[in-house]
Amino acid sequence: MGDVGSLPSYYWRLFTNIDFTAAQPFGFWTLLSFFTILSGFSILFLTFLIYRADSKNPKNRFIAMMLFTESVRCMAVSFFYAYPYELEQIQFLYFIRIIFYTTGIMLLFLYLSAPFFYIENRFSKWVVKSYYYRAQIFIPVISFVILLVACMSMGGIHESLGETLWIYCEGVGPGVGGTSSGEPLTYVPHCDEGLASVYPLMWSTTLIGPLAQIIFFIPLIGAIITTVMITFTTKEIFRTGSTSEKNEIWAIRLGFIGKTLFQFLSIIALVTFFSLLPDVEGPALTWFNADAVDYDSIPTWAILIGVVTPFISVNLVLAALFEAFVFSYAVMKHEVLGIDERLRKTFTTALFAGLGAVSFLVATELMENAAGVGWLGGVIIGIPLILLRKPIFSAFSKISISIMPEAHTGNEQAYLEAYSIAMDDGVVTEDERRMLKIQAKTLGLDEARVNHLESHYSAKSEEE
Q1: At CA 170, angle to CA 169 and CA 173, rounded to 5?
Q2: When you count CB atoms within 10 A of the terminal residue's CB, does the N or C end of the chain come out lower?
Q3: DSSP assignment of 397-408
């Protein structure tokens, strides 16, 4: 860490010198990489909850495996932007990119498995049973073999997936560079005076090879096919199934629809990225190539790529988060006490935090460019967000309720039935309240959950 100073001072330089118009998006990319890694751990936590809820149920095992794959994918997608790695570390950690693209192929198999949990035939039963043990082994192995064969047929791993570039600028002047494959750069990195505020800087970025471009489309295609299959194969359940079954199908289908939309945005960002590129290709395309970027007259592509590129990763992560919340609701709503309410609160908080973060970044950037005082934009946008916190939360709560309707476990339903009987005359007597407390204790419901259930009953009665 001696090359860039202490880690806190390094991050402080990056975060306080974000300026897209000056081609300084490094702190922004690092912030988003933190977001993707934390999102991966959040999905991993939901994976653990789903598996623990009923580890012998093949549906739980399937959803848990799918979300585990998504969590690994989120943690790996922007991994190289999170830390000032040495070149030797970059070369060693290249295997993370291999894991990332392997998960992309895995998701195709996992997505296409989903409709078979709602189809009654011999092949569907075989697919469902495979998630007891076989699928957990064969899907990762087969996906890795497919990736390896494709890489070898396209000239090698680095050629097909893309290089990871490493640049080090101690100060203004010539810098040092390298690649994950060990091939030297075709130019000497130029550490321009326009970036002096972030020096010393150790920066790595990833290129997207031809095979990587194909794999980006694979989960999107799988999600579209799965959405269509689930829609057509579950029509009978929507006609004759219970409310619980209908809610589950709705949640699963909505999860894939959301996944499709967010991944489609990632593809749009990817296409936009390639459309912005100049004639310079491969490792020569960086902010540190004097032949590609002139800091006296920064080209438009250098500014826009700083904004567009990270949204390829962010949309991928948002798709996984949405899918994780909705699938967790679908699988656990009748198995874990209050999981639907907790998921809705978390989802609402995440929406509010996301709105605040995006608004803050946009406001500070606009004020930095307009008046040279970025923090003022944060204050201007922060005060309305604080004052309007309640109505914004209320609006987001309505969205979360429409996505994840109220659902109850068997124990909660039993309490509601007892409470309904007590409320026949519109009043709960002292004797009835004592019996309800005994019932709640027997069913394992705490006071907070009981209050929520009774409030839900009252709200539902008023609607009727």
Answers
A1: 70
A2: C
A3: HHHHHHHS----
pLDDT digits (tens, 9 = 90+) for 36-77: 998 899 889 888 878 877 778 888 888 889 999 999 999 999
Tokens of 90: 């970059």
State the sign of the Cα–Cα–Cα–Cα dihedral 127, 132, 134, 140.
positive
Predicted model pTM? 0.74
Tokens describing residue 312: 């390829």
239: β partners: none
Of 169, 176, 164, the closest CA to residue 24 belongs to: 169
φ, ψ of residue 372 in degrees (nearest 5)? 75, 15
Length of the chain counted residue by residue: 464
What tokens appear for 171 in the block? Answer: 């100060």
Listed in sequence order, the residues at least 6 apart from 174 whose beta carbon sits closer than 8 Å to its beta carbon are: 188, 189, 190, 191
Which residues are 178's β-sheet partners?
Answer: 166
CA–CA gap between residue 107 and residue 117 (Å, rounded):
16
Radius of gyration of the chain (CA): 26
Q: Quick one: DSSP state of residue 19?
A: B
Angle at 63 between CA 40 and CA 237, to 5 degrees: 135
CATH 1.20.1070 for domain 7-335: yes
